[in-house]
Amino acid sequence: MKILTLFLCCVWLAFANVGAFQLPAKYNDFEKLLLSRMNFSIDPCDDFYNYACGGSSDNYDVEISQQNARILQSGLEELRHSDLHDHMMSSEAISKVVKYYSACVNEQNGRYNVAEYTRQKVDLFMKEFFQFVSYQFFNDDVALDLDRENLSGLLKYVHDEFHVEPFFTSLFQPDFSTESPRVLGFLNFTETSPTFVMEYDCKAQNKVLDKFVAGVRTVMTTMQLKASKSEVKAVARELMEFEFKLLGLCQENSDDGAESGKDGAEDVADNNEDDGENEYENEESHSTDEMDFTDETESTDESDEAEITDEADEAESTKETESSNETDEENDDESTIETTTSSEPESDGIRFKKLEDLTFETWNFDFNNYVREIIATGAGSNLIDYDNLQVITEIDHLPEILESTSDTTLLRYICFRIIMANVVDAPKCLDIVSNFPLIKNRIYTESKYASIMERESMRSLITTIIEMIKTTLKNMVTSMPWIQADKEAYRIFVKKFNRMKSHVGIEDDFLNNTWIDTYYEQIQFGESDTFLDMHSTVLKFNSYSKVRSLIYPENNLEVDTTGDNAMYSADLNKFVIFDGNLVAPNYHKKYPLSYNLGNVGGTIGHEIAHSIDPNFIDFDEKAAYNPFLGEAATEAYSEMIDCLVNQYNDIQLLPDHFETNRVNGTLTVSENMADISGIDAAYRTFKKFEQKYGRERRLRHPKLRDLTQDQIFWLGFAGGFCTKESDEFVELTLMTDVHSPKKARVEGSLKSLPAFGKAFKCPVGSKYRPEEYCKVWTR
């Protein structure tokens, strides 16, 4: 006990050091943070969300992003202007990043011209493949000979120079089910990414068409073209309908063939517009990226015997847990890790192809040559076993589309996608560092933590919290009578939690400059390179990250851990929380433990609870899809799900005049279940801390001094959702998002958590202390 207390004291004292990055003053004072957010005129038993968040117009998500941006920028400026980081700057890779960032900062003052740079590259592309001196984007009669048999060469050029795959998306996925170093995994050809970040609604195509019209206007400005409004709209419709075909959308009543775009153009033209002389100017739109996460530390089976559990639960589960451990230990050496990759193809009817089968003769497109060239470029000197590279094609309709579409339309669409990808969003200097995620993590961590001790103290404390919450969730699940009655389900749940891997995404590989320099050695900047030259080189390198994921299948290396993110992966049975989540106002050393556990603890609990939600409950301890609940347990689980669906269906967030004004309980049930069980486990963990180490002192401000630590815990939970959202945004969330809107996530969760009603002494039968409520993994 004394040793543990001394350890925790050292952990908290370690945070007393002043780091390289200094927090804004408003986050250093916890009481000021609460006072800036809370609305004391509201009864927490009537509307807790607005009680906790209604006094501020701040956007929680924006606050966290701004905090992480400040930390990163502080570190970058230190490297640019200080001589105190010789070890980091001795790395060639880190020096490249600083040069790249500095070039952006310096040239941004001179307003580098992305449009002009892209136009010059497009002109070179047209001369290389079509001998065009000037490409006439709007001319349907232009002499064009698109070599379909060698289309792979053109698309490889577009991939490398413009970082676009216009007709499809190629995803390389490592195969974790084999130990052979030569069987890399599989290649998945899926649909192209939509040009625009919006809902493509077949019943409201004019909204989508407006985006394409704006995109065509951007092409005009970039390529210095002129066209009438009718020409612009005709081309925009042609491009939209072609993209709909690629995406397999809205094809029920559409005409086949290349001429459908032109045939429908007149339907869009405004009757009162001059079709001859009016011309368009420039307009901008947007694009997005995705990421994955990184390596892990696996928890041991010793957590079966964790002491942090209710005595009643412990008494009921100890005997079964011990027998499960014995079986677990016997089977561990013999078992192999299965993943959804290896199990789902058979169950879902996915058909793998060999690369040699995807030639022009058999598929009307030479994917074979395209893939080999992509892999050869990305793999460098690594030997690749192409014969064992399996392929999934989810775009079997593509050959027919390409065959039925004119050369003019294909080239026009390629050009359109090039401009949209390269011109619309000019690179921002701080954002471009994300193109080097491994180095960005190092710079961020160096800036955030003043010492190794501070960094490792944070890692140790968060790891402890993760293990306690995971154990608490395991005990919640295995204490359910219908789980205890199902011996097989009980056994698998115990193993699943015991084998669940966890990782705190804090960069720790500070000294390994050799490895990171080798990893980025393909990026070479010339002495005369402008910022945009460097940027193009970096984007090309990043477009090959999909190939590097095959070469390093054990780790998804290129992961940015500086964002406000945490996740659970069912196919690895693994939880990770990123360092960017561990910042104020999310988490801070000066905040009460109750608040930190309500906020970050709730996030940890939520993600771990996804392992038992309707999407992932059927994945076993080996991360293989294996429905294991017996008939009675399945029925009990379904009743719990049905109750949650009904409970959230009753939550109305918008006035009646909105077409969609209530939560869709079915759409959001997995996230709602994770919210409730996750924060429940975090609260129980908080009470364990409090029982062992005593209660923290009360706050001092007159408006806050009566708050108990239990109440502060729930303020921490709500604090993670404090964001002002427009009614229109809420309606869009209700229609499309698997997450309930933020207010509903708080309100819906608290109805199923009696501890909240007791903490605020809400009357029995009131909104947050109903006599009947959905019990989620609790009796």
Automatic annotation (TrEMBL):
Q: Where is the Peptidase M13 C-terminal domain?
A: 565-776
* Gene Ontology CC terms: plasma membrane
Region annotation (Disordered) maps to 255-348
What are the recorded GO MF terms, alphabetically? metal ion binding; metalloendopeptidase activity
Per the record, where are the segments of Acidic residues compositional bias? 266-282, 290-315, 323-336
Q: Name one GO biological process term.
A: protein processing
Q: Signal among the record's keywords?
A: yes
- Indicate whether Signal appears among the record's keywords: yes
Superkingdom per UniProt: Eukaryota
Every copy of the Peptidase M13 N-terminal domain together lies at 44-250
Signal peptide interval: 1-16
Keywords attached to this entry: Hydrolase, Metal-binding, Metalloprotease, Protease, Signal, Zinc
Cofactor(s) needed, names only, are:
Zn(2+)
The UniProt family comment states: Belongs to the peptidase M13 family.
| Stated name of the protein | Peptidase_M13_N domain-containing protein
Phylogenetic classification of the source organism = Eukaryota, Metazoa, Ecdysozoa, Nematoda, Chromadorea
